[in-house]
Design goal:
heterodimer; A: 241 residues; alpha/beta; Rossmann fold; 8 helices; 37% helix; B: 553 residues; Aminopeptidase; 13-stranded mixed beta sheet; 24% strand
Chain lengths: 241, 553
């Protein structure tokens, strides 16, 4: 399975679940914008490794369903954020987590936030830094799922193949709380860095943020009114690259 | 700069997002157009930002109740508070100065558009927008041959507006103060326990007397109780010597009820048996609960019934959740402060035409400022201060200088402060990203760190917060201040300000351990961040380093 194929499955499930999408920097963000440019997608142009924390802050605040997608380079750089992400999304006092010791620094829920929704953390793992020319990452040496569970994610699994990914996305979006999915994708055909080159995101970050905030306000209102304003989920709704 | 002035409350000229009830289009639809005054919507904009305000042209005396300079000069009872001495001197001044109110009509009053609203803005507005807005209001005054041009209910801490008004030769007149009750308890006994012994004793006596008189309170459906509310409102107005317009009162109240969802209202009725002698209608807006109608029928002769319906019953009936802030408005301040409210002073800024009126205004300004209400210094905890500044989401990495704030954040609910969410972070860049995400979800976020952490967070600050133009407050303890600290702090500590300046991040500072300074600094940072674009830093200087550097205290 190629990255864009996996990404298309993830984006389709995200749209179907009415979830907000955060796309990590590099080719993931570019490809996400090319495949499905909807207002509730937040393309991260810089700040490598910070997409999960950004997504967790948003999910913590709004309780909306959230999907965050990043590459393995981002994921490896951002390992230190995993405990904070897991704590932000834990129910109750935030002490939940495998091996977590009671009394450790937990998140505290305040007045402004909502009950938690599903949070799906997808790592598209091709083993290379593709947008910089296909240099190798350390991901083949690292058990990312074990790290995620150790950091407090209640559930993490490695996924290969489109059918399995489709099922895993549906399952993860159907229950509240964080799920970590490490998706094995093939390096680009024709060698590293030879994949379809997606154009740079054709939008100023300011406009991405404004459009996203407006869409989030609508989504929150829809959630508050319990209106079933779930966007129709159709293949046709997406632009193909 | 484009200036639009249109008759009426024009929603098109109003920003889409406002965070205050009195600036909310739903509120203004019900309250902006009232008889006896012409409302105008003024908007000043360029490609980057916009500033809007409502201006009222008053032609007749007594045209409106609370938002009228004329009523205010006469001492209209529901409006403002003078000390007995100040009132005496004001009356002497008015009598000596001839028929001042008549001399001040017609007047243009910018009420901004209610006492909790201020002017409203969007995008990257600047002082130039404010100057142009003041100019547009002055032009409206000139068109209407107004003698007086006034900006009412200007919060004293709104440095930007006051500076602009001063530049435009307006004079300040102390008006009143807004009273807010921060809710730190969940039961009535928790509330009374929060007072000093003497005060607690008095409150308990009131409660005992109410019980002995057989006074009870109950929650009621506001729509079904419209008649009751109108009856009590009219009785209340008569108590102040005015004849109420029952139809107008009913229409306005019905409009307020129609414009907001039913779940945002809470109505308390108080009386003996089934007959209500007092009512208090609350409207929830964000974290605030506004008392939008409070009225008591004096004929019922139930002492303290008013406080029962407005203060005690809402707590007993669970209407005021811990963490909320109850806005009790601007009149009868003393009674509210005695019952736990915090006061925020509000001024009027006035300019008049004509020599004689000008002289009178100058005297009035001096007199009123000598008797003005001071802000009550009640907040000492860093967490309460952060909350009072409008922050509702905090994350960060601790520093010993920030120990009190972090300890309070961890214990927030125990301390009764549930209005702030707290997420611990592992690194400062992760903290910035968490806060940025919460901001995208509508939070007002603050990230704490020591100055070294800023180095870790620079990529997150520049390529995320700055370019996506997210309003965020960075609360930085300035270790290494002026090189007076340990070597590994001093390098960045010495260049912290130029570093921030180089990154294009505005900063304000305060000394740790000085609550009033901290509140002013965080408030200012929140205001600057909302104005945008991007983050604003508060530099918190450790007191001992400041001393070591030989800075003036």
């Amino acid at each position: 399975m190629h990255r864009d194929e996996a990404l298309r499955i993830v984006l389709l499930a995200t749209r179907g679940g009415g979830a907000a999408l955060f796309a990590g920097n590099g080719f993931v963000a570019r490809a996400a914008v090319t495949i499905d440019d909807r207002p509730l997608n937040f393309a991260m142009l810089g700040s490598m490794s910070l997409a999960p924390a950004l997504a967790a802050g948003f999910a913590h605040r709004t309780g909306l369903p959230v999907v965050v997608v990043e590459g393995d380079g981002n994921a490896l750089m951002g390992l230190s954020s995993l405990p904070a992400v897991a704590a932000a999304l834990a129910g109750g006092d935030g002490h939940a987590g495998a091996g977590g010791h009671a009394g450790g620094g937990g998140a505290r829920r305040g007045g402004g936030e909502a009950a938690r929704g599903p949070f799906v953390h997808v790592v598209l793992d091709n083993g290379v830094y593709e947008s910089t020319g296909g240099q190798r990452t350390l991901s083949p040496r690292v058990d990312l799922c074990a790290i995620a569970v150790a950091a407090g994610y209640p559930s993490a699994r490695a996924v290969t193949g489109g059918a399995v990914l489709t099922a895993a996305m549906a399952e993860a979006l159907a229950r509240p709380g964080p799920t970590y999915l490490r998706v094995r994708v093939d390096p680009a055909p024709g060698g590293p860095g030879r994949a379809a080159i997606h154009p740079r995101v054709p939008r100023h970050p300011r406009d991405i943020a404004r459009r996203f905030v407006a869409a989030a306000v609508t989504a929150k209102a829809a959630k508050a009114d319990k209106a079933a304003a779930v966007t129709a989920c159709t293949e046709e709704g997406m632009r193909r690259p | 700069m484009r200036v639009d002035t249109e008759r009426g409350f024009v929603e098109r000229l109003w920003p889409e997002r406002v965070d205050r009830l009195h600036a909310d289009p739903r509120w203004l639809r019900a309250n902006a157009n009232r008889p006896g005054r012409d409302v105008h919507t003024v908007r000043v904009s360029d490609g980057f930002g916009a500033v809007s305000a409502l201006a009222y042209v008053h032609r007749t005396a007594g045209a409106s109740e609370a938002y009228d300079l004329h009523g205010l000069l006469l001492g209209d009872p529901p409006v403002f508070q003078w000390s007995a001495e100040g009132e005496k001197r004001l009356r002497a001044l008015l009598e000596g100065g001839g028929n001042l109110p008549a001399a001040l009509l017609p007047a243009v009053t910018v009420v901004l558009p209610g006492y909790d609203a201020g002017w409203v803005a969007g995008g990257r507005w600047t002082a130039a927008h404010l100057n142009a807005m003041i100019g547009a209001v002055a032009a409206l005054a000139a068109e209407n041959a107004a003698t007086t041009c006034a900006f009412l209910y200007v919060p004293r801490e709104d440095g930007e507006l006051t500076a602009a008004l001063r530049r435009a030769s307006f004079l300040p007149v102390a008006l009143t103060a807004r009273a807010c009750l921060p809710v730190r308890w969940s039961t009535l006994s928790g509330y009374t326990d929060s007072f000093s012994r003497h005060r607690r004793h008095k409150l308990r006596n009131e409660l005992v007397r109410l019980r002995r008189l057989g006074v009870r309170s109950w929650r009621a459906d506001p729509r079904r109780s419209l008649d009751t509310m109108v009856r009590l409102r009219c009785a209340h107005v008569r108590k102040f010597g005015r004849e109420p317009d029952e139809g107008a009162e009913r229409r306005r109240l019905a409009q307020v009820l129609d414009n907001f969802p039913e779940r945002d209202f809470g109505l308390v009725l108080t009386g003996r048996g089934d007959l209500a002698a007092s009512c208090a209608l609350f409207l929830r807006h964000g974290v605030q609960l506004h008392l939008v109608l409070a009225a008591t029928d004096p004929a019922a002769e139930l002492p303290y019934a008013h406080y029962e319906s407005a203060f005690y019953a809402p707590i007993r009936l669970g209407l005021t959740p811990a963490g909320a802030e109850v806005d009790y408005g601007i009149s009868h301040l003393e009674h509210k402060v005695l019952r736990g409210c915090v006061a925020a002073p509000l001024d009027a800024w006035v300019r008049v035409a004509g020599e004689r009126a000008g002289g009178t205004l100058r005297s009035l300004s001096e007199l009123s400022l000598a008797h003005r209400v001071e802000a009550m210094p009640t907040l000492t905890s860093p967490l309460d201060i952060v909350r009072a500044a409008g922050v509702d989401f905090v994350t960060g990495v601790p520093d010993s200088e920030l120990a009190t704030l972090v300890a309070e954040l961890e214990r927030g609910p125990e301390l009764g402060q549930t209005g702030v969410s707290y997420l611990p972070a592992t690194r400062e860049d992760n903290a910035v990203a968490l806060a940025a995400g919460a901001t995208l979800g509508g939070a007002t976020a603050l990230v704490f760190m020591k100055s070294m952490g800023l180095g870790t967070a620079v990529d997150a600050i520049t390529s995320l917060v700055k370019v996506y133009e997210l309003p965020l407050v960075l609360y930085v303890s300035w270790v290494g201040y002026r090189g007076r600290d340990v070597p590994h702090h001093n390098v960045l500590g010495e260049v912290l300000e130029p570093t921030l300046a180089g990154l294009g991040i505005p900063s304000v500072r305060h000394t740790i351990g000085r609550p009033a300074e901290m509140l002013a600094a965080v408030r200012r940072a929140v205001a600057l961040a909302r104005r945008g674009p991007g983050p604003v830093a508060v530099l918190a200087v450790p007191a001992q380093l400041r001393e070591a550097a030989g800075d003036a205290p």
